[in-house]
Amino acid sequence: MLLKISHLTEYRFEEPVHYALQQLRLMPKSGVGQNVVYWDVTVKGGVREQEFDDQFNNRVMLVSINPGVKGISILCEGEVDTTNMHGVIGQNNGFAPLWFFLKPTPLTEPGSRVEKLIEQLGTDHESDVTRLHALSHLIGKVVPYQTGETHSETTAEEALISASGVCQDHAHIFVSAVRQMGYPARYVSGYLLMNDRTQQDATHAWAEAYLPDLGWVGFDVSNGISPDDRYIRVATGLDYKDAAPISGLRMGSGGEDMDVMLQVQQ
């Protein structure tokens, strides 16, 4: 499936910015199940300083903001040809070893709620895949999708306590539980072609677990499936902070607003 992406992020600052540096993880790579036909990043109000691959093999662009500006825009446009791999990515070929993906983070640290979730899941499952699909279904049932109840700093445990969340929370809970069950797991950010609309408010997030016979396999808790040819993988990491589309720092007073306009279409 040939997918076309237009992703515009605009920041507006109350006061002129003296210095700011942003990391962009907005550049998908060709790999299993996806071939990047073309991809362009246009920055207005800033300068593209450097590009590199991080420890998770994500392509990262460093952007500095022009001193004194009160806004910056980042436009990503491209086409990616995808193939339905039923969520199977395969063997680990990044810089980070598998044992690294067993490491908990502040956002995915397991607690009593994650332990209770694993206990509810039980052990009577035909295979690793069916076990993790059952976990995905359970998380979706225990934490229904609802916007406005969590934020980027909400932990897996907090989302379970609030019993509501979005795709980021679902991915964090899944990653936390799967690691506690002994499987390496990672957070994934990317794009998803929606069936009912092309205009979206944000990028999507899901998770991947490493299974002995299959390698990395994706699980989208929010939609109750493994990723298919409607998905584009952009970045991975231990949690959201490693794979955030845009992160960084700035010097200067005043607040800021951000607008996102995203279109994903066939």
Question: Care to describe what's here?
Answer:
The chain is 19% helix and 41% strand. Helix 1 packs across helix 4 and helix 3 (156-162) crosses helix 4 (167-180). A hairpin with a 3-residue loop joins strand 10 (204-211) and strand 11. It is built from five helices and 14 strands. The strands form three sheets. Strands 3-6-1-14-9 form a five-stranded antiparallel beta sheet, with no helix packed on it. Strands 7-11-10-8-12 form a five-stranded antiparallel beta sheet. With 266 residues, it is of the alpha+beta class. The radius of gyration is 19 Å and the shape is globular.
Strand content: 35-45%
Biggest sheet statistics: 5 strands, antiparallel
- Rg for CA atoms: 19 Å
H/E element sequence: EEEEEEEHHHHEEEEEHEE
Protein name: Transglutaminase family protein
Domain Transglutaminase-like: 159-223
Organism: Sneathiella sedimenti
Provide a short characterization of the protein structure.
InterPro entries: Bac_transglu_N, Papain-like_cys_pep_sf, Transglutaminase-like. With 266 residues, the protein is of the alpha+beta class. It is built from five helices and 14 strands.
Salient structural properties:
Papain-like_cys_pep_sf; 266 residues; Transglutaminase family protein; Transglutaminase-like; five-stranded antiparallel β-sheet; Bac_transglu_N; alpha+beta; 19% helix; single chain
Explain the layout of strands and helices.
Blueprint: E1 2-13, E2 19-27, E3 34-44, E4 46-53, E5 59-65, E6 71-82, E7 88-90, H1 112-121, H2 128-142, H3 156-162, H4 167-180, E8 185-192, E9 199-200, E10 204-211, E11 215-219, E12 231-237, H5 240-243, E13 246-251, E14 256-265
Helix pairs in contact: 1-4, 2-4, 3-4
